[in-house]
Amino acid sequence: MKGGIILASTIRDVAARAGLSVGTVSKYINGKTVKENTRLAIEEAIKELDFHPNNIAKGLRNAKSFSVAILLPMLDSTFCTSMISSIESTLLPLGYSVIVCECHNNAEMELRKTQYLIDRMVDGIVLIPYASDGKQIEMIQKSNIPLILLDQEIQDHATDCIVLDNELAGYESTQRLIDLGHKDIAIITGSPNHYTSNGRLNGYKKAMTNAGLTITDDYIQCGDYCIDGGYEAMMRLCKLQKRPTAIFISNYDMTIGAYLAINYLRLKIPDDISVIGFDNFPLANVVNPPLSFAEQPTNVMGTEAGKLLYRRICGDYSDYPKTIMHKPTMHYKESIRQLT
After folding, report:
1. What sequence ranges are listed for the domain HTH lacI-type (predicted)?
2. Cβ neighbours, 10 Å, residue 117
3. Half-sphere exposure of residue 225, counting CA atoms within 13 Å on the CB side?
4. Domain-located, residue 216
5. Each residue of 259-285: b (16+ CB within 10 Å) or e?
6. Tell me: the pLDDT tens digits for 44-95?
7. How far apart are CA 10 and CA 39, in angstroms?
8. Which DSSP category does 2 fall into?
9. Are residues 305 and 289 in the same domain?
10. Using CB atoms within 10 A of its CB, is residue 195 exposed (0-12), middle (13-18) or buried (19+)?
């Protein structure tokens, strides 16, 4: 205490309490391996002194931890987990370990996990955002940690982004169904305030409007980008007095849920309803008839995120902020049919 003010503990305090050198404590805090008895002594001193590594993060920022983080909304999302492998396979050969953090679709948890990663002094973060207000971006940027935004852009928060042309994916899928003679076309979409949801829904609406077709509110159903949500949305559509003849399901997990509902109701694809799903994951290859789908290049996007993050870690900001937008690849198979 000095002048009535309680001063935060420092790394020197921890070293003195543990009976070790500052260099040894610094080595441990930076994630390096130390002897077991040394680790126990340091952790006991940290606990007794209520020491927080972020108190010295600024002083240690020049030292690399050789760890990067992926912060994502949920691990049970097929899209999110598909990104982890390609990011990791890009950065592991470069000497970086990868920490994966899940915020469980919770904005407050996302901020807590962001602070945790800042305290861990990771060298870089790949963020698949949940909240759209940009608070997590501000925290990371204030800490001068390189950041790559994956899957969406956050308005008024300039940073590197790797995204899909979501509007084109929604437009192309809907237009194909229109070309086949369908007029009563539904969409299962994600949360209305989500970047990708808005893009894919806007593409659907644009195709319907350009074709002079009526956009029916009941044909726009939210499935929350999850299997259960896709199931419930499909059940709601099938209970309508006038069931749609075709549907575009705007993500993979909702496509699984919608298929479960279709099977439960004993409907036939495409005889009873034509279906276009999303992403080239196992479902597209095992269902009968084969599924039509809009594909985003998840492996390419993950690899690009890893490479761009490494460039930023190395200090190359020559093209900052950089946005890479990918076009979807459309695959039309036997799950859709021509109306006579």
Report:
1. 9-62
2. 25
3. 21
4. yes
5. bbbbeeeebebbeebbbbbbbbbebbe
6. 888 888 876 554 454 444 567 889 999 999 887 778 888 898 999 999 888 8
7. 17
8. B
9. no
10. buried
Structural domain count of the chain: 3
Whether residue 211 sits in one domain with residue 123: no
Residues 43 and 77 in one domain: no
SS3 state of residue 254: helix
Domain span holding position 32: 11-60
Q: Which two tokens stand for residue 244?
A: 């749609």
Average pLDDT, the chain: 89
The DSSP secondary structure of 33-67, one letter per residue, reads: ---HHHHHHHHHHHHHHT--GGGGHHHHTTS---E
Alpha-carbon gap, residue 32 to 65, rounded angstroms? 8
pTM score, whole prediction: 0.78
Are the C-beta atoms of residues 244 and 208 closer than 8 Å to each other? no
Residues 308 and 72: their CA atoms lie apart, in Å, by 18
Burial 308-339 (b: 16+ CB within 10 A, else e): bbbbbbeeeeeeeebeeebebebebeebbbee
Please state whether the peptide bond connecting residue 270 to the residue before it is cis, i.e. omega within 30 degrees of 0: yes
* Helix/strand/coil percent split, the chain, to 5: 45, 15, 40
Q: Both tokens of residue 251?
A: 């993500």
Q: Tens digit of pLDDT for each residue in 118-144?
A: 998 899 999 999 998 999 999 999 999
